[in-house]
Here is the input.
Amino acid sequence: MIWTVIPLAAIVIVYVVLTQPGKQPINTVNPKPDFRYASSQTGVSYPQPQGLPAHWRATHSDVTGSGSNATMQVEVGYLTADNQYAQLVESTRALGPLLQQQVGGRTAQGSVAIGGRSWDRYRTGRGEIALAGSIGKLSVVVSGSAKLPEMRTLVAALH
Here is the structure.
């Protein structure tokens, strides 16, 4: 009887190994329509990252709010070349409330200069980096598991 079960078990093992899902592709999106929509609704220019390194990929994009008198926010998540996450949030909301919403439990760690602007640097409750500042009438927060050089790359790409 054991000689009958062994070939069947081998067939099942081979089947299971061969039908395992491979590496899942990473979903990518085009965030440009969300930036354009927010700009058209508020009359405020929402800067889009330009010239990010080739292997950076936008993995999600969302715009919330409506109308010129309401708070409108664009949120885009990026997977960096080092497979780390960087989230960009641009909002007509004041920087303090936006920081509270995006990076609760933060600890201030000074500031960094990027592209001629000063950006406040924070450590999140999860130990990640967050950068916060303003561009024109918008409050901007960049946070995630990406290292500081990648965060700087994202902020510097905002045009």
The first strand starts at residue 57 and ends at 64. Residues 2-18 form the longest helix (17 residues).
